[in-house]
Task: structure prediction
Amino acid sequence: MPNGQEFIAEGEYTDIVEFEKIVSTANFKLMTEGVEIQSLYKANGNKTDFTFNIVHPTEEYKIQQEKMGIMNGWGSVFDRLGELLKNM
Result:
């Protein structure tokens, strides 16, 4: 991580449908464990619509993760991806 803290990411792909979706478990130790990540893709003319879902095991855990900044964390991932794609 930018602050030098080690970031351990583990997961398992649970469902892959070519050009449609990628679903995996996500364990980002020590911050997030036991969530499901869903990346959904849909053709839209010459573009692709992208939907990203994070499914938490409970509402309480979702709220805890939001307080810890999960939305900012994933937001920064997509900001960096956008910059990468612009520079390609």
About this structure: Helices lie at 59-68, 70-86. Residues 8-86 form one domain. The chain has one domain: 8-86. The first helix runs from residue 59 to 68.
